[in-house]
Structures are given as structure tokens and as C-alpha cells.
Write a structure and sequence with these properties.
With 750 residues, this protein is an alpha+beta fold. It is 18% helix and 31% strand. The chain is built from eleven helices and 38 strands. Strands 6, 7, 8, 9, 11, 12, 14, 15, 19 and 20 form a ten-stranded antiparallel beta sheet that branches. An eight-stranded parallel β-barrel has the order 21-22-23-26-27-28-29-30, surrounded by four helices. The longest helix has 23 residues, at 612-634. The chain is globular. The protein binds (2R,3S,4R,5S)-2-(hydroxymethyl)piperidine-3,4,5-triol.
């Protein structure tokens, strides 16, 4: 049993081998929190952790009692203004303008497994894998009921949370804030880690200590965004990648979000996570419900790698679309950086034939195959083949690609249209725009109003036909601009605050309908690269294009940052041409491959331009990748060195039994006559013996380096010193350069 209720104490204790989360019913009936942290015994009474103090300027709940103030209480779903002056988890406005709620405990239910969230992405669990506690709270004045839901996994240091609002009163209530999670922590001695960026520079790690006041990240762009990812970590100052306490908070949602930590005057911390309240208001009529998206709390005492590995496990096995979580991902070639819009059927077939010869498995035709789409300004929304370019349509091209022995996939951008499209000409009112104001464009395109069912139905029917006619195995679902002037003419004025959320629910609905019709379809998410790289997309898109920046060195930062929350199996990574198209950097083919290997691997360049020698290398590389890809994508990933801290990066992936693995080592700039260097491998079993080999740059062999015990490799590691010490003319082996990579394999000796 992971969830215990001690009726005589009014205490709930959620626990497994990793953590304890203890809640209690407060003297005023509200739900309070006693503890969140490492697992502690269930047979002790923890109510002494509920502290109060008679502090001047405090307001107290009960007349004559100067101990109990919500200002000094750790609460589970706090409401601002009821003796608590910190930011609340919800704000609900009643017809008389009041926004105070008195949320009192009514009842609770404990069940095995985890119920699904209607219309929303959420983690899954079988009856044996998790237990769920639902606690019903009610405000007697308004009739509002809120059910707080907590799922604890048996094996994982994870708690999933969300809230459901039900209007049991007689008046419409206006929900202006409805967060998914509040977590009050007793101190503020935390470092905040956030994953920040812009287009082509996604998820760079920044950290800062919490200080009094607010620390927050969020998006108001209608998608989770390139700017801030819906994931934060809190660590102690001494926490490392391998040791120490870390808390992670991930929001399973793809629209506007806010994650905020508030440090108050008494140095406690309140973490809040949910839909961004900016531009959010939901009219909850009598009898109606509103379900918040899910937020996940993770906890580790094994540092940031321990936290990441737990999130990877959760996302791979309990969130990503089944059965793709653990399935082999096809090695793909995508024509975008190879041809952009400039292609003919002959050119595409040439690339496809070459891809087959090299050992790739899936050909993806990117933007430009439909409507009048030969450039950015036209065609979006007209999802039928352009037969001027592809004379036999998508079905004809698909047959030819399949005849080569490849799978076939296509690019779509379902949520958008250009003004120069039949869709817009026929339905100009189908875009999001505010009456009387001009609609801003982004990349010459406009956002369709997915809060309207007829819009989704129209796009569904067009996509369904192409997927069926083309027998598609894969689609890349792109989304290339943020939302603006968000307003739907299909809804009355008092529901305009619902449109952002309704839009993203529409996006989820379209994904789900397509997957219901084509259960085998692999959808790769994308939003100008990684603008919607979030857990909310994973139940539909088990892999997501990580960034439009395909330069291997930029990718070291982007993929490293992404790995804090997301497993390798969802990180889309391709080898592109050198010099690179985004930063014009020249990098060796081996480095580009060694970086892309830590992702769902593919090529994105004009394969017809490669020399015969390069093709021979790639052929060998594909054989190697096919042997190792499952282990890398689904194994345990460990960060060994960080690009955010120095010139070198190292990553490792081990299978879950710790019997084989791959280590990638990357050095950004060459250094002359540098220090002797060792790379300890802390993820091995002490008692086992391992054979270490180095993969040759042309993938022709794996050269044995030696055999060592796990303990030795953990304490000492692989030697990485530069054997030339800068005197390259005297050295006959592989010369170190800028943008240099090495790959090692590890195999347990039986
Ligand atoms: C943005 C994506 O991130 C690219 O990979 C490519 O698909 C283009 N859109 C096509 O317009």
C-alpha cells in the first residue's frame, strides 16, 4: 500500500521506497501539508510539523487563537487573502465579486491505478503500478467543489497531481486561476534550474538561488515555447549531477503555463504550477466541471542525474504514446535541409534511393508537397498534393518510395493557414483574430481557431485522406508561429478567456482522432524545432524535433539541456551538412553523428551530394547504429560533463541491466598541451568487469582499450588525454581538432 490514511490524526501519508508526501486536515478543515522529501516511517505521528507563531501583523483564522494563521501554514491548495498573503493556487470569482473560498475537507477515496484525464494528456499507470488519492474539498458559500488528485508510483519517485473544479452551486463562477499543483517547502535554501532559450537555442540551462519574492518562468504564446520549457528543478547548493537532493516539476501541457516559486518573509518557498492565469478565465456554469492539466513532482537524493532518470522512466513508460516508448525508431532521412522547397519527384526519389543504399529506413518529405506551397507565403491549410510538382500525387510517390523498401512520411502544419490558400479564401473567419483589430502574421501565416469543432473536422478529413492514400507510416506535425489576438467569433464575450485552453484541447483532439484512425502512425512533434517540446505532446508524439539548429556543437547545449527532463527516445536529432546552415560551422561527420546518436537518429541533407568515401562511412555507421540505437534511446542516460560548465561534454547510455553501454565524449575547442584527463563512469556496477572499446572515426572497427572493473571505471575512468600534446607532425594516429568527438562502447564480460 503506498497511500495510508490515519483517520484519528486526519493525516494522509503517500510513500514508496523513494519519498514520503504527508498531508493533513487543518483545524479549519482546509488541507495542509506536513512533509515532502525522502521516505520516512509510516508509523510515526508527524503533526508536530504543523507550526504556528504569534507574529505581529499576522491575521489569524480563529478569534482568540494567535497560533493558527494560513500565512504560516503549508497548504495543499491555497487561496489568497484568507490570512494567507502568498500567491494562491486558484482564484474563483463569484457573482457578487468575492474571490475568497473556504475549501474544507469533505471526503477522500483511494484507488489502485490512475484514472485518465478527459481530453488531456496524462501519465498512465496500471492497477499494480500506482495508487491514486482523491480528496474532495468544498466551499459551502459558492457550492464549488475541488477534487485534488495525487498518484504515487510504486517504483518511481514521482507524484502526479491535478485538480478538478465542479460547480455544485446555482451561479456561474469565473475561474481566473486554476493551478495544477502547489507545493509549500519549509525553507528557501534552493537553487532554481530553468531551461531557457529562443528559436534554434532551446533549453539552455540557467540556475539561480531563490531569493525573497518571485522566481518564475512561463509562456503566454499559446504553446509551451522555445523561450521557457515547462520544467524546473530545485536543488540544494551542494547537489551535484550524481549526489544530493533535487526536486523536479514538470507540467504535462502544451499551452500557456506558469511555474513560480515564491519565497516569503519567513523564508519558506511556495511552488505553483499550472495554466498561466494571464488571459485565462473559464466560465463554470452550475453542474459543469473543469479539469486542470497534470503536473508531476519528482524527487531524488541521487542528484540531477537521478532526477532526470526518474523523469525519463516516467515519460518513456507511462506517458509516451504506446507502444513507441520502448520501440525501435526508424532511421530517417528528411529532405528539408537537403532541398528546402526546391524539389522534384525525381530529386526526391534520388535521395530516397541513396537513403536505402546507405541503410536508412524512412523517407520523410517535409514542407512543400501540397496546395500551392512552393514558398512560405502560400498553401498552408490546403492539404492535398500539388500534382504540378508530384504528378502522381502522394499516393504515387509513396508507392515508389515503398518499392525501394523504405517507409514513407510527410510534413503537415495542421493548425495554420496562409492567406493565400483555398482554406482562407473560403473561411476567413476560421483564424484566431480579435474583431476590429488586425491579425498579426508569423512566417506569413495565421493560426486556425481550434476551439471550433468544424475547423478541426475540416482539417481532420483532409489529413485522414492523405494519410490513407499515401499509406503514411509517419507524419511530422509542425507549428511555426505563436498565437496572437486570441479571440474566437464562435464564443460569446464572457468565454473569450477560454480560447487559449480550448485551442490546445483542439490540438490534442485532432492528434487523438488521427491516432485512433491510424494506430500505427508515428507522429513526430515539431514547432519551428523545439517550440512545443513538452510532456503534453508525448502521448501523441513519442519523438519531437528538438531544434531547427542542427549544428553539432549547438546541439550539445540543446540536447544536454533537454535531457534534464526528457528521455533520449523523444529527442529528434539529425546529421546535417557541413558547413551547417544555421551557424555556418564546419564540423567533422563523426562529431555530427556522435551527437545525433543521442537522439532519434536521422540524416537531413542532400544525400546525392555525398562523396563515395563518405557514403561508405555512413553505410558502416548505419550498421553500428542499428546495433546500438535501442540501448541508447531506451537505456539509462547519464550526463557526465556539461557544456554549460566547460569546453567538454560527455554523455553515457547504459542498458538497464548495466551490461552494455555507449559513452560519447565531445570537446568544443582543441587545447594545446593540455592536462591529463580522465572520465570517471559512475553508472557502472562495482563488481562487474567491463571491456571498453573505442569506435573508429570511419566506423570500420571498435578498438579495444582495456578491461577494467566497474569500481575502477567509477573511480578512475577512461583516459582522455591528448596523445599529441600539440606536436601533431610527430603523431601518426587520429589527430584531435576543434569540434572533436570520441565514442566508446562498454560491454560486461560474462
Ligand atoms: C520548421 C521545422 O522546424 C523545420 O524542420 C521544417 O519542417 C520547416 N518548418 C518547414 O517549413
Amino acid at each position: 500500500m503506498a497511500i495510508h490514511f490515519f483517520e484519528n490524526q486526519g493525516v494522509f501519508h503517500l510513500t514508496n521506497a523513494h519519498l514520503s508526501y504527508i498531508l493533513h486536515i487543518l483545524p479549519n478543515g482546509h488541507l495542509g501539508q506536513l512533509y515532502f522529501g525522502s521516505a520516512i516511517p509510516i508509523d510515526e505521528d508527524y503533526r508536530y510539523l504543523f507550526e504556528g507563531a504569534p507574529r505581529p501583523m499576522t491575521t489569524y483564522v480563529f478569534e482568540g487563537d494567535t497560533q493558527f494563521s494560513l500565512e504560516h501554514t503549508r497548504e495543499e491548495y491555497p487561496v489568497y487573502g484568507h490570512s494567507d498573503y502568498r500567491s494562491g493556487a486558484c482564484r474563483v470569482v463569484q457573482p457578487n465579486g468575492a474571490s475568497i473560498l473556504n475549501l474544507e475537507y469533505v471526503s477522500h477515496m483511494i484507488q489502485h491505478g490512475k484514472p485518465a484525464l478527459p481530453g488531456l494528456p496524462a501519465c498512465r499507470a496500471t492497477q499494480a503500478e500506482a495508487q491514486t488519492l482523491e480528496i474532495l474539498l468544498k466551499d459551502q458559500v459558492s457550492g464549488l467543489k475541488i477534487t485534488l488528485s495525487y498518484t504515487i508510483y510504486e517504483e518511481l519517485p514521482m507524484i502526479c497531481r491535478h485538480a478538478e473544479f465542479k460547480n455544485d452551486g446555482v451561479n456561474t463562477l469565473r475561474l481566473q486561476k486554476a493551478f495544477s499543483l502547489a507545493l509549500d517547502l519549509p525553507d528557501d535554501n534552493w537553487l532554481w534550474h530553468e531551461f531557457v532559450g529562443a528559436w534554434s537555442r532551446e533549453r539552455h540551462l540557467f540556475k539561480r538561488p531563490l531569493t525573497p519574492g518571485m522566481t518564475a518562468i512561463g509562456s503566454t504564446r499559446g504553446h509551451s515555447s522555445h523561450q521557457f520549457n515547462p520544467f524546473v528543478c530545485l536543488t540544494r547548493s551542494h547537489t551535484t549531477e550524481h549526489t544530493g537532493q533535487a526536486i523536479g516539476c514538470s507540467f504535462v501541457y502544451s499551452g500557456n503555463f506558469l511555474i513560480q516559486a515564491e519565497v516569503d518573509a519567513y523564508h519558506t518557498t511556495r511552488l505553483l504550477c499550472g495554466i498561466h492565469p494571464e488571459n485565462f478565465e473559464w466560465a463554470l456554469r452550475p453542474g459543469e466541471s473543469f479539469v486542470t492539466p497534470e503536473a508531476v513532482l519528482g524527487y531524488s537524493t541521487q542528484g540531477l542525474n537521478g532526477l532526470s532518470q526518474a523523469f525519463h522512466n516516467l515519460m518513456r513508460n507511462h506517458l509516451s504514446r504506446e507502444p513507441w516508448g520502448e520501440m525501435v525508431r526508424p532511421l530517417l532521412v528528411n529532405n528539408w535541409e537537403g532541398t528546402y522547397f526546391d524539389f522534384t519527384e525525381e530529386k526526391l526519389l534520388g535521395i530516397a534511393q541513396k537513403a536505402k543504399d546507405l541503410g536508412l529506413e524512412l523517407f520523410v518529405l517535409d514542407d512543400g508537397w501540397f496546395g500551392e506551397r512552393t514558398h512560405e507565403k502560400a498553401g498552408l491549410g490546403d492539404w492535398w498534393p500539388n500534382t504540378k510538382r508530384l504528378k502522381n500525387g502522394i499516393a504515387g510517390l509513396s508507392q515508389k518510395i515503398r518499392a525501394l523498401g523504405l517507409k514513407f512520411g510527410l510534413w503537415f502544419e495542421p493548425e495554420m493557414c496562409n492567406q493565400d490558400s483555398d482554406l482562407y479564401r473560403n473561411h476567413p473567419d476560421w483564424i484566431l483574430q480579435t474583431p476590429g483589430y488586425s491579425a498579426s502574421h508569423g512566417r506569413h501565416q495565421y493560426v486556425l481557431d481550434f476551439s471550433r469543432q468544424e475547423v478541426i473536422d475540416y482539417i481532420y478529413q483532409l489529413m485522414e485522406q492523405v494519410i490513407r492514400d499515401g499509406e503514411l507510416d509517419y507524419i511530422k506535425w509542425d507549428m511555426n508561429r505563436s498565437l496572437s489576438e486570441v479571440y474566437s467569433t464562435a464564443y460569446p464575450p464572457h468565454q473569450q478567456g477560454e480560447i487559449f485552453h480550448r485551442h490546445i484541447l483542439g490540438v490534442y483532439q485532432l492528434h487523438q482522432r488521427l491516432l485512433d484512425s491510424f494506430p500505427q502512425l508515428l507522429i513526430e512533434g515539431c514547432s519551428s524545432g523545439g517550440g512545443r517540446f513538452d510532456p503534453g505532446m508525448l502521448p501523441y508524439c513519442p519523438q519531437i524535433w528538438t531544434s531547427d539548429d542542427t549544428d553539432a556543437i549547438e546541439r550539445l547545449f540543446i540536447q544536454h539541456g533537454t535531457s534534464y527532463a526528457y528521455p533520449i527516445s523523444c529527442i529528434g536529432a539529425h546529421v546535417s551538412v557541413s558547413p551547417n546552415h544555421q551557424v555556418l560551422r564546419h564540423t567533422p561527420l563523426f562529431t555530427r553523428a556522435a551527437v545525433a546518436l543521442f537522439g532519434t537518429f536521422g540524416y537531413e541533407l542532400d544525400l546525392m551530394q555525398l562523396s563515395d568515401d563518405t557514403c561508405q562511412i555512413i553505410k558502416r555507421e548505419m550498421i553500428w547504429v542499428k546495433i546500438w540505437r535501442c540501448m541508447i534511446q531506451h537505456g539509462q542516460f547519464t550526463r557526465l560533463r556539461s557544456p554549460f560548465e566547460g569546453n567538454d561534454v560527455a554523455w553515457a547510455a547504459m542498458d538497464l541491466t548495466k551490461s552494455k553501454g555507449v559513452v560519447g565524449y565531445y570537446r568544443i575547442l582543441n587545447r594545446i598541451n593540455d592536462r591529463f584527463d580522465r572520465l570517471p563512469l559512475p553508472m557502472l556496477n562495482d563488481m562487474e568487469k567491463y571491456r571498453i572499446c573505442e569506435v573508429a572515426e570511419d566506423f570500420s572497427e571498435e578498438r579495444p582499450i582495456g578491461q577494467y572493473s566497474g569500481k575502477t571505471l567509477k573511480e578512475i575512468g577512461i583516459l582522455l588525454s591528448d596523445p599529441t600534446a600539440g606536436e601533431i607532425s610527430k603523431y601518426a594516429g587520429r589527430l584531435p581538432t576543434d569540434f572533436y568527438a570520441r565514442l566508446f562502447t562498454i560491454e560486461k564480460i560474462a
